[in-house]
């Protein structure tokens, strides 16, 4: 799981300025992302059959590049298309219920505070997403930025838990995140809004590879 978290791309139709989600994801896959999460949020988000069709297309694309396909906060869709996993926040379906329904799938959980970590069924998830690292415009209800503080605190008491940092992350902060013992970074805007998704992703991957080997 830790290897999959290295460069985790999170994206939905609203995150792509030119409404070109499929092409953005394919360029990111070519550039070296290691995990993809379909996070379809916002006032114009796809719903029902349109969302399902997009999810199926994205899943086919990810599997072509041997990258796991995760869906955000929609366990019914995970089951419907047999996706590789589910990511949930603190206010979504309970971890225990998600694990009961998805016994063999990847389950990720968002954590922003030590209290959330301590109150969650961490033993039932495959990884946690810690953030927001910096202020982010990709999530309307984002919590205050926490930097590396929570990652460091969790790592001290749980050295083996796969952790990915998320929220306002760009190339300049990757080294500090890896130094804090996160296993990777989750990125939205730095990739989805790049004028050259492939080159940006490739540079991010190279930076991560270097930071993880030092």
UniProtKB/TrEMBL annotation:
<dbReference type="GO" id="GO:0009229">
    <property type="term" value="P:thiamine diphosphate biosynthetic process"/>
</dbReference>
<keyword id="KW-0808">Transferase</keyword>
<feature type="binding site">
    <location>
        <begin position="188"/>
        <end position="189"/>
    </location>
    <ligand>
        <name>2-[(2R,5Z)-2-carboxy-4-methylthiazol-5(2H)-ylidene]ethyl phosphate</name>
    </ligand>
</feature>
<feature type="binding site">
    <location>
        <position position="139"/>
    </location>
    <ligand>
        <name>4-amino-2-methyl-5-(diphosphooxymethyl)pyrimidine</name>
    </ligand>
</feature>
<comment type="similarity">
    <text>Belongs to the thiamine-phosphate synthase family.</text>
</comment>
<dbReference type="InterPro" id="IPR022998">
    <property type="entry name" value="ThiamineP_synth_TenI"/>
</dbReference>
<dbReference type="GO" id="GO:0000287">
    <property type="term" value="F:magnesium ion binding"/>
</dbReference>
<comment type="function">
    <text>Condenses 4-methyl-5-(beta-hydroxyethyl)thiazole monophosphate (THZ-P) and 2-methyl-4-amino-5-hydroxymethyl pyrimidine pyrophosphate (HMP-PP) to form thiamine monophosphate (TMP).</text>
</comment>
<dbReference type="Pfam" id="PF02581">
    <property type="entry name" value="TMP-TENI"/>
</dbReference>
<feature type="binding site">
    <location>
        <position position="92"/>
    </location>
    <ligand>
        <name>Mg(2+)</name>
    </ligand>
</feature>
<feature type="binding site">
    <location>
        <position position="168"/>
    </location>
    <ligand>
        <name>2-[(2R,5Z)-2-carboxy-4-methylthiazol-5(2H)-ylidene]ethyl phosphate</name>
    </ligand>
</feature>
<dbReference type="GO" id="GO:0005737">
    <property type="term" value="C:cytoplasm"/>
</dbReference>
<dbReference type="InterPro" id="IPR034291">
    <property type="entry name" value="TMP_synthase"/>
</dbReference>
<keyword id="KW-0460">Magnesium</keyword>
<feature type="binding site">
    <location>
        <position position="72"/>
    </location>
    <ligand>
        <name>4-amino-2-methyl-5-(diphosphooxymethyl)pyrimidine</name>
    </ligand>
</feature>
<dbReference type="GO" id="GO:0004789">
    <property type="term" value="F:thiamine-phosphate diphosphorylase activity"/>
</dbReference>
<feature type="binding site">
    <location>
        <position position="73"/>
    </location>
    <ligand>
        <name>Mg(2+)</name>
    </ligand>
</feature>
<feature type="binding site">
    <location>
        <position position="110"/>
    </location>
    <ligand>
        <name>4-amino-2-methyl-5-(diphosphooxymethyl)pyrimidine</name>
    </ligand>
</feature>
<feature type="binding site">
    <location>
        <begin position="136"/>
        <end position="138"/>
    </location>
    <ligand>
        <name>2-[(2R,5Z)-2-carboxy-4-methylthiazol-5(2H)-ylidene]ethyl phosphate</name>
    </ligand>
</feature>
<keyword id="KW-0479">Metal-binding</keyword>
<comment type="pathway">
    <text>Cofactor biosynthesis; thiamine diphosphate biosynthesis; thiamine phosphate from 4-amino-2-methyl-5-diphosphomethylpyrimidine and 4-methyl-5-(2-phosphoethyl)-thiazole: step 1/1.</text>
</comment>
<dbReference type="GO" id="GO:0009228">
    <property type="term" value="P:thiamine biosynthetic process"/>
</dbReference>
<keyword id="KW-0784">Thiamine biosynthesis</keyword>
<dbReference type="InterPro" id="IPR013785">
    <property type="entry name" value="Aldolase_TIM"/>
</dbReference>
<dbReference type="InterPro" id="IPR036206">
    <property type="entry name" value="ThiamineP_synth_sf"/>
</dbReference>
<feature type="domain" description="Thiamine phosphate synthase/TenI">
    <location>
        <begin position="7"/>
        <end position="191"/>
    </location>
</feature>
<protein>
    <recommendedName>
        <fullName>Thiamine-phosphate synthase</fullName>
        <ecNumber>2.5.1.3</ecNumber>
    </recommendedName>
</protein>
<feature type="binding site">
    <location>
        <begin position="37"/>
        <end position="41"/>
    </location>
    <ligand>
        <name>4-amino-2-methyl-5-(diphosphooxymethyl)pyrimidine</name>
    </ligand>
</feature>
